[in-house]
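Q: Joint fold for the lines below.
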Amino acid sequence: MNKPATIKDIARTLKISTSTVSRALREASDVSKETRNAVKALSEELNYQPNKFALSLQQKQTHTIGVIVPNLDYVLATMVKGIDEVALEAGYTVMVCQSNESFGREIVNTRRLLHSLVDGLIISVSSETKVFDHFKKILDKNMPMVMFDRLIADVKVPSVRLDNKDGGLQATEHLLEQGYRRIAILAGPKTLGISNERMEGYLAALKKYKIKPDPDLIIHCDFDQDYAYLATKELLAMKKRPDAIFTISDRMAIGAMLAIKEKGLKMPDDIGLVGFNNEPVTSLVSPGISSVDQPAFELGKMAAKLFIESMHHNDDMSHVEEVLKPKLFIRESSMRNAAKNGRTK
Amino acid sequence: MNKPATIKDIARTLKISTSTVSRALREASDVSKETRNAVKALSEELNYQPNKFALSLQQKQTHTIGVIVPNLDYVLATMVKGIDEVALEAGYTVMVCQSNESFGREIVNTRRLLHSLVDGLIISVSSETKVFDHFKKILDKNMPMVMFDRLIADVKVPSVRLDNKDGGLQATEHLLEQGYRRIAILAGPKTLGISNERMEGYLAALKKYKIKPDPDLIIHCDFDQDYAYLATKELLAMKKRPDAIFTISDRMAIGAMLAIKEKGLKMPDDIGLVGFNNEPVTSLVSPGISSVDQPAFELGKMAAKLFIESMHHNDDMSHVEEVLKPKLFIRESSMRNAAKNGRTK
DNA sequence: ATTTTTACCGAGAACGCTGCCGGGAACGCT
DNA sequence: AGCGTTCCCGGCAGCGTTCTCGGTAAAAAT
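A: Joint structure:
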């Protein structure tokens, strides 16, 4: 009564063979209606659940997807929710591991999942990660693998990402349209791809307006509110201080905002501010912070879809690279001429 | 080369039996040093990893913990991180499922994990959940199970929770100390245990100050910013409006804050505000919102510890109920007499 | 009436691993 | 020399499932 019912139990009480039970449960054709019904009825009654390990052992499929993310902040949590959504739909279970932005932890996690625990991986790499051997090992085992959000150019797998450059472009162009001219950027660590892409957009926008980028206005700091706060303080202490700041995350925008307020400057008049991610917090502070929204949920869904596709049709999909467009949400922090197109909430 | 190496491969190339290989790998005593070394060397070379399914099939242990949470907001994500931490340490892998506060989803998830996929569950129930049959089923299978954060009184399992009553008490008492006397509470849905506990604390504080609770000042609304906003608007429209509001989550506090600002009232002078959870956002808005901090990370760690204990020593632990203390962080939103003990961060 | 088809079912192996048991060789003891 | 120990090792079964193969009886075709 305590042990879960097996196919053998059913076979025994029905006095038929296990093969027949197995077939009956799987709706195969080689079973008469009566036995099939009998089997189903009994299995229902015994609350029979197939043993997944026996299954996995046999057919080398786990119907589990391993997801490795650097953390579970707002954006990533939303993406994971998206992954979860379509995975569940497709009969997969999802296993989430956080690498805590740590390279070592990432290795441990992949190794854990690597052998036989999951059918494949959906990964967003940690910011520390510079070596990718552990991922290449996965590919050698030709285990399906999809990267999302933070990619690695070296590793050829299907991927979903945001058009970060376009995000940077939208943000910077908006600031330029609003009349700001000395625009600083708070970028992340130099190794972080998404940061560089957003900066490319920033540079592209400047170029469009024929403004020569000022190296003093390009700050690389850690992806963190406190660092952003300090960096902004320094920026504002310059003799020719910037009249706008674009930060590549909302966390950093908050940090910048604190420094700006401390200095007694007013947004958007004295200085403009645009962040990235469109986290809820941007509309909670005052003034509200303009921010580049990314379709995180959609991005997660897309990642899972790609994974499942590359799982089923096993033709090579490594070239597939979906790119989703961000969308700037304009709030008070950068809205000098209120006439304009502002969408707020 | 592509297929992972098995114990058989090692046995074959070394011309010994699989049993010997198995023993050699497990450091058992019945193996000579030479063969043991040979086996280890070869397994290293072939990058042998034991097949977990074969293991699980045999010894009915998965070394995987299923975690079901209603969502992955700030607090829960932190708790999950705590669980992850100690689980990994103890050689367990963690599988996180979000129920999205939906009862149906919770059932699906538990069923998924129930049979043979995990060794047990660590659960925080969804706010919709009112029936607990699916959890009782788990216990019937005597699968280890731990509840955390949001418990269910009916189900006897080891648990970790916050002393929510004390949190409510600290918050309300603080408001009273600051001279507020008509204190409203924005509580969550009546079915939600943690909400009721926090309200108990609220009532206890009032009693201590010999204030009769006014039913008009006790509002039950959804656990949500928008509802809190609307509820606060109504509160402020009363002829005898409250002079302070205690909300049982920071989300709701933000909603309340928006309504307060809209009405043109000033915090802390016209009205006091205290939230719950001490999410980062509370220190980002201005004025900063006082909030009751919970040791979320610790709580998660504790949950995992309890789980592992109840896994190993299989004596009955269902009576164990760890209770962690919250701690009020005081910020401007409720600090009338600035002289006081404020810790701000 | 005989052959062929169809419908249904069972036996056995396999997946990768461990646990139990038994057995041979070498050693020490009487 | 005979006996019991100890040390190593191999064989076999079993975990719960599915898959392949083969077989029997009834139904259909000849």
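Q: Anything notable?
A: The first strand of chain B starts at residue 64 and ends at 69. The radius of gyration of chain B is 26 Å.
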